[in-house]
From TrEMBL:
It comes from the Eukaryota. GO terms for cellular component: nucleoplasm. Keywords: Cell cycle, Cell division, Chromosome partition, Mitosis, Nucleus, TPR repeat. GO terms for biological process: cell division; chromosome segregation; mitotic sister chromatid cohesion. It is found in: Nucleus, Nucleoplasm. This is MAU2 chromatid cohesion factor homolog. SUPFAM superfamilies: TPR-like. Its main location: nucleus. Required for association of the cohesin complex with chromatin during interphase. Plays a role in sister chromatid cohesion and normal progression through prometaphase. Belongs to the SCC4/mau-2 family.
Length: 580
């Protein structure tokens, strides 16, 4: 199993060892290590149905041994989570909480509680997540005596709490937890902090760990990037993404563990959306191609299976930003067909609605808005996504010249955006409201809306809102007979427009641009012939971009790290949980 590729022979030996050792007393290490390894081997061969009974039998036999009982419970919970059997995984983790309570293994109890909270997040059981985190918090604060173990648990806890708030689009609410998480990681990466081997090698009930501190460091960057994206601070998101990618390359040079590729792909998904918002499509398509290569290079193309819908969505946003609406539609449709995650589907549908709006397909637009309304009326969605839904409805009403209706929808969007500091949603809503007021001849209110919109757009920076806002300002200053300001606004508008068009034309020269023609199956290698590339028009349209999230990992100390199982968190393009 360790040194050859002869899995059949490995399986044969392990099956014999399990049969021979199953009924031998006082033989725990051999017996349960055999069960654990055999289950791992079955899973590597996509035979989880064979792994589960072995692990269940081993759990039944190991109740007297806290270490093995807990290890096997974690492993079987992971197996069920891999198969999306979340209720069974949650029940096993609840058993772990009870058994560690009886044996007074407080540290392990905390790990089981936090792992169960992750499963609840995957199942979108918001109230249950809060209840479990509330149960875990006092245990971590008051019952864990070992300072180093306490700090690791705090990082685990704060990452979950931050992800929970971000998946609900609560960018403002999350700030305190994010700050606490950043303080904890600074403590752990300090030069005087002991090695992981020293911390987790004291006794067998403390030999379970979360991520190694070097990977935790990357993870905290990732969470911070997610927050910056949702809050609309693209410069910050870019800065932290670059730092995290540098750290990943450093870790890869030491040991290229599969989770590093997971971190890399999620960071790339973030940075691509940043580029599109900032009007840098030429870098975005290069990075989409890099993300595709990372997925293809993973073992058994595992990452491609999990991230193909996101890649299609990113290509849809890219095609949309270059006004290739037919390609954008097909990419969003591919994303919707391939994903089982409600939030990603909603995100793609909202952008598809804008495509229908821009291509004047009123019936398709009406159908998709009704579908979104029906599918999400009873669901708890991200504040950012629901605000975006109101924004799209406002945009539709504006195009139909239903200005009163447009104002109603956009005020709802602004209320949601302002409550949680969703700056990009605020700037988009303000500039559209300004256009609504301009259309009904209310220059004063129009100016009151476009001025803060432009200030926010400059801070983000969002070149599409700046382009739109400068056009409105030009018309407003003309109405107010202010020729100097009108010329200034016109020059700004021309500048923004020329920058976008120049970047747009640059994209067509890249072979990576041909990726917009990939709609199903494995993505192709770059196409070098310029004849195969689709040329965009010179019209600029801004996609609805959004924020995203972060993976979470549980592993046992000194275990070889498998590829893991990735499950989408409620959120936007790439909010994910990794439970391992």
């Amino acid at each position: 199993m360790a040194y050859t590729k002869n899995t059949d022979l490995a399986k044969n030996h392990l099956e014999q060892a399990w049969i021979l050792s199953e009924n031998i007393n006082n033989f725990d290490d051999v017996k349960f290590d055999t069960a654990s390894l055999l289950a791992q081997l079955y899973q590597q061969q996509d035979q989880s149905s064979l792994a589960k009974p072995v692990l269940r039998k081993a759990i039944e036999l190991s109740q007297h041994n806290v270490y093995w009982h807990c290890k096997l419970l974690f492993q079987l919970a992971q197996t069920h989570a891999t198969d999306k059997e979340y209720t069974l995984a949650s029940e096993l983790l609840a058993v772990g909480v009870e058994s560690t309570d009886e044996s007074n293994a407080t540290y392990l109890k905390s790990l089981f509680l936090l792992s169960r909270a992750m499963i609840m997040m995957i199942e979108r059981k918001t109230n249950d997540v809060l209840a479990i985190l509330s149960q875990a918090s006092p245990i971590i604060d008051h019952s864990i005596q070992n300072f180093h173990l306490k700090e690791y648990l705090k990082v685990f806890f704060y990452v979950l709490q931050v992800c929970h708030y971000l998946q609900l689009g609560q960018v403002k609410t999350v700030k305190t937890s994010l700050k606490m998480l950043q303080q904890s990681i600074q403590t752990i990466i300090a030069p005087n902090w002991p090695s992981d081997e020293q911390i987790f090698g004291q006794n067998n009930t403390e030999m379970f760990m979360w991520l190694p501190k070097e990977q935790l460091y990357v993870l905290v960057y990732l969470v911070t990037v997610s927050h910056s994206m949702m809050a609309g601070y693209m410069d910050k998101a870019q800065k932290y993404t670059e730092k995290a990618l540098t750290q990943i390359e450093k870790l890869k040079s030491q040991e290229n563990k599969p989770i590093l590729a997971v971190f890399q792909i999620i960071l790339l998904e973030h940075i691509i959306m940043c580029r599109l918002v900032m009007g840098n499509k030429s870098l975005a398509i290069k990075e989409i191609a890099l993300a595709k290569d990372v997925c293809l290079s993973s073992t058994n193309k595992f990452l491609l299976k999990k991230h193909a819908p996101q890649l299609h969505c990113l290509l849809g946003l890219y095609a949309m930003s270059t006004s290739l609406f037919e390609h954008a539609e097909k990419q969003f449709y591919s994303c919707i067909q391939e994903t089982t995650e409600r939030e990603l589907k909603l995100f793609a549908n909202l952008n598809l609605a804008i495509v229908y709006l821009r291509t004047k397909r009123e019936q398709d637009l009406r159908n998709i808005l009704e579908q979104i309304q029906q599918e999400n009326s009873q669901c708890s969605n991200s504040q950012a996504l629901m605000g975006s839904f109101y924004y799209v409805q406002g945009l539709n009403a504006f195009h139909k010249s239903s200005f009163h209706e447009a104002k109603r929808f956009l005020r709802e969007t602004l209320k949601m955006a302002n409550a949680e500091d969703l700056n990009r949603l605020t700037s988009c809503s303000l500039v559209l409201l300004s256009h609504v007021f301009l259309s009904i001849g209310n220059s004063k209110e129009s100016m009151n809306m476009v001025t803060p919109a432009m200030q926010l757009a400059s801070k983000i920076p969002d070149i599409h809102v700046q382009l739109w806002g400068s056009a409105i300002l030009k018309d407003l200053h003309r109405m107010l007979k202010e020729p100097t300001q009108e010329i200034e606004a016109y020059n700004n508008h021309v500048n923004f427009s020329q920058n976008l068009i120049a970047d747009q034309l640059k994209c067509t020269k890249f072979p990576e641009h041909a990726l917009i023609n990939w709609f199903q199956g494995d993505p192709p290698l770059p196409m070098l012939s310029q004849d195969l590339l689709v040329q965009p028009s010179a019209t600029i349209v801004a996609p609805v971009a959004s924020g995203s999230g972060v993976p979470i990992v549980v592993q046992q100390q000194q275990q070889q790290q498998p590829a893991g199982t990735y499950v989408r968190l409620p959120g936007t393009l790439n909010q994910q949980v990794m439970f391992q």
